[in-house]
Structures are given as C-alpha cells and as structure tokens.
Model the fold of this input.
Amino acid sequence: MTDPATWSDEAIEAALAEAHVPSLTNALVHLTGDVSLIRGDERPASQLFGDPQGGISPEHQEAIRTQALAALRAHRDAGFPDLPPPSQELVKEMVDFITGVELDNAYGEFLMSELKIFDEDPYRVSLDDLPEDDRRNFHVLVIGAGMSGILAAIRLKEAGVSYTVVDKNAGVGGTWFENRYPGCRVDSPNHTYSYSFAPEDWPQHFSPQRVLLEYFERIATEHGIRDNIRLSTEVIEARYEDPGAWRVKVRDSDGESTLTANAIISAVGQLNRPKLPEIEGRDSFAGPSFHTAQWETDHDLKGKRIVVIGTGASAFQTVPEIAKEASTVTVFQRTPPWVAQRPDYHAPIPPAKHWLLNEVPFYGKWFRFSMFWTTGEGLLSMVRRDPDWDGNPDSSSNGERSVSAANDQLRTLLTANVEKMVGDDPDLLAKCVPNYPPAGKRMLIDNGHWFRALKRDNVELVTDPIARINPDGVETGSGRQVNADVIIFGTGFYASRLLFPMKLFGKDGVELREHWGHDPRAYMGIVMPGYPNLFCCYGPNTNIVVNGSIVFFSECEVRYIMGCLKLLIGRDLAAMDCRRDVHDAYNEKIDAGNLGMAWGSPDVRSWYKNERGRVTQNWPFTLLEFWNQTRAPNPEDFDFA
Done:
C-alpha cells in the first residue's frame, strides 16, 4: 500500500534518477493520459547487451523525468486516486513502444496476459463448473516440490482436485534446495523468474540461492499446500494398471509403501541428477571430492589446493568465491563458455528502484514486462541459422564460428567483452574465446567476476586434457601432475535421462527408459503415447536457451495439464493417451527447428544433445508459439478410455 510519508519531493526526484525510462514513460501515460509520450520520434530499441535505456537520448530522458516528477506530485496531492484502466488498443500501442517493435497482432493476447495490466490470471484453469465430488474423487500425484511442483499443487488446490506431492528432499524448493555451492544464484533476471501471480520485491537483480529458496518456501506456505507435501519420500517406480489408475511405489524413512493416483504430474526437472565424468582413477583420489550440486559443507577450503573440473554454470559461479580463500585453484576447461555481460549481475537493487517498483502505479508491471521481452524474444533472432551464411571465414578454426550475420555480430560483441577483461593476457584470452557459435552451448551471465577470478595469482585455467586422477590429484595428457587437497566436479547433470532413476511402466508394461532409450521425446514436452494420464513439467524439448524464464514455461505447462484434467473429470473419462501420429509429427517439427538454431550446430558438443547428437532438451521457437500451443489441449490429439 502506498505510504504518503515516502512521497516527499526529494524521495520522488531521487527515485526518478534511477528509473528505467521506457517503463517510466508508459507509467506516465497511465498517470496523465498523454498518449503523445509514446508517439514521438524518441522510441526505445530492444538492446539486451546495450544501453539499458534503449538508446533514448539523455535530453529526452531528462524531459520524461521532469514530467514524471510533476505527475507523481499531482497524484500524491490528489490522495493517490485509482487510475482508470487503459483500453486494449492503447495497451497494444504501449507494448509496441516499450519493445521498440511494431508487433504482429498475434502477439496481442499473449503479451497482454504476460503484462497482466488488468490483474487477470491467464494461467488459471477453472474447474468450478464441474461437480465438487468429481473433483475431490480424482487424485493426482505430483512428483517433486520444486518450482513446477509447487505451481502444480497451487493450481490443483485452486481447482478443488485432490492431490499429494512427494519429494525426495527434506525441504521444498527443488534446485534451490539442492544447490548450495558458494556463489549459487539465478541467471535469469529475477523480476521474470517468479510466478506471474506472485511478483516479488527482489533484493538483487539476480538473487542468490538463499533468497530464491525463501521465496518458494514462502509461496508454498502462503498458498496452504504444505499439508499435502510428503518430504523425504522418493518414487521408486510407477505402474499404469487399470484404466486411469497408477500404482506408485515410494520409499521414506518408514520403508516402502504404495500410493494410488488417477494421474501423475512429474515435476522433477531435467537437471537434478549430477553427472561425474568418466576419468580413469576418479575414485582413487585420497582427499575429499564432490560435485557442486552435492556440496559438502563440512570441508574448510581455506588455504587448500583446489582442483575444479569443468567451466559450466556452477563452476563459473563457484570459482570466484572459493578463490578468495584457497591457496590455489586450478580450473580444468574442455571448452570455454560464452559470457553475456550484465553489469548488475551481483548488484543489489538500490532503494530508489525499490520505491519505483512498489510505489509508482503500473511502473513495476512495465519494468517486469520489459525484462521479459528483452531477455525473451528479443535475442532469439540472433541465434537462428542462416543457411546461406558462411560461418567459418577463418579456415584455421574448427567448425562454425557463427550461424548468421546477426549471430556473428553477437559474437563480435561478446568477444569484445572478453578482450576488455583479459586482453592484456594473450594466453588467457586465447583460452576464454570460444570457437563455436554464440548460444551453441549454454551462455552464462556475469559482470566480469569470472574473468577477474581467472586473473588472480592463485588461479590457473588449464586446457591440457585430463589423463587420469590419482591419489595426489590430477595428471594431464602432457604428463603434468597437479596436486590437490580437494577436487570439485562442476560437470553438469544427466540431462537426457529425464525422470531418472524412477521406473515408469506404461499401459503395455514397457518402462519409459526402455521406450525412450537415450532419446526422450514428448508431445508438447508434456505427454507420451503409451503412458496415459502421465504429464511432465520441464519435459523433453522444453528447456530454454536465450528466450525467457523457465517459470513461464512451467506456467504454460501446468495450464495445459489442468486443461487435460478438466477434460478427464468433466467428461467422466478414466484415461487420455496421446496419439502416436500426433506425437511423431510434433517431434519432427521440433527436430527441424533445433537444426535451425545455433545449438543445433553439428560440430558443437553440449548437454543439450544426446549421444547421437539429437537436441533432446531445447525449445527452438518463440515464447508466443509455446504459449499458444499450451493454451488448452485438443481432444483430437488423444485416445480416451
């Protein structure tokens, strides 16, 4: 609620100095009704790595702040009256302004839903028109109490559908409960990494693990779902037996037991089973060794010689922190990551910006929407493959360096940032510039923290391949011995082993991994033929690389799943099973789409791909397309029983 005491002229003026001017401009339209503010020549351009003000001139920024100061004073002096909602047509014009693009009308409803200017809940599926007893007698088992599992439970409770959530961990929060390594934090802007119905006044632009965990713990409590969550309970196997009946074997501290459910929602994620590298002698090391996702807090790393194997996301965040106290840190790198520069990556949100987000009418909505667009569709065009592009102008390099002119421009921009950080060290620079296209592998976010750590006197980046691990440390391919007190593996997860190690037996008695092999596929990333009433969140080909927040995908997926449950309960059906032909046609489209993206480059190895080189993880299209396809299930896509 607005606090008049905080609205002094000085407080308003100080806050406006920190404002995101495109968001402030749209807020000013709400406050004044002056649409000329968004119809002039000064319009922002979407710039993910460029000017955060979208290229708006300093003079125009100052003019907007001056007008905003007068409008906010008037709003305060009038007693903070409610503002009338704008028309749909005006909101569309404001969307075009803040994105810097005249968007196709197809984006209208999608972006309006994400913006939530009228406080509607576009992801809620109402089952209120169905008999209460029918909803209560239909039971859903949710596997996982992380971000998606909490969301599914909230939606099931809202709909009056009976449910139980089980999680192998001792607390809710999923990845934010499990990953507790030093430096762990989110790498999506926090104002987009939150439920659409529960925005948060985040302390930082990219908040650390503890803050994220507290958010999901609080949401679970506030929405009253904790009584339906069984923690420290792991699913061993599930068998589809009678139509519409799953028998699920679980293990907890009391031993094994069996649960029954009409439907299962898997919310276990893709990146939750740590992968250790197949290195000769890995288990022979005499000292402590562990994966970043299984951080062992009982080891004092101060003054220790530490070897870190891998330069993926977790190692990227961990190394700068442990290097502050370690004697030495030797980092073994197979391939370098592309690093997107974000100066605010570790920065707290200053009080003035908190004031803007919490006090100025509609400013917070437009700011979140701007982050959503800039980090979403705004970058996608730069990672699409141009079949006519010569991506390897330097014949001395191996494989493609870029996949289009726009991708090459992105490469130049990202390379310039590396050169700025380590250009005074030619040897280190050569190790830090990737030879694959930007977005070919996971792109990491930083403010120079990583590169500054690599330049420390006690840190060494090694690209000499590891030959073996021995009791004293690591031996490289050239015969060098690197002695260590501790070895830390930042080597990722078994990404293609979705739903592992659970065993899920479908209607024909075939276990899901036998059905998939190492090639997981699903229709919409949510349902698989032969496994009726089994639904996935963050299933095959629903990982995002450059566009959007995974929370957005989960909200779309749970909306689709709730639509499926409405079909089952509303039509008094026992089961729905995705048609094989529909599933196969969809996956042909997905495969073609991924081949047209940077991460589909044949010369790039990454966890996005399975052992045969197929991209099993990523969504290759726009957020709009995923939002549209998951709005509601098409009954013609299923066989019913």
Observations:
- The radius of gyration is 26 Å.
